[in-house]
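Question (not urgent): is this output format expected?
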Amino acid sequence: SERLIDDAAKNQVVLNPNNTVFDDKRRIGRKFNDTSIQSDKKHWSFKEVNYNRKPKIQVDYKTKKKIFIQEEISSMVLIKMKEIAEAYLCKRVSDSGVFSTLKIL
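Got this back:
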């Protein structure tokens, strides 16, 4: 299994629906029993699990069951966005948070 983001993930959703995660930003900061989470669940083909009242996503990743928190999935998307920006700019991107007035640790 490889990690696919954006169009590559959309293009394979029919072949691998249980491992295609989407709507991740909607779950950040919410509890597992949140009404919006429970309402949206019927549209998701991936498995969501209750871990200490927090929604987590279970997928098959590299032949093993893996549970991801929403922040991990979001970070994967951000890493991909950085790679796309670097490819477009033909140079390393390292100060994007500074330009957005974020405090870089």
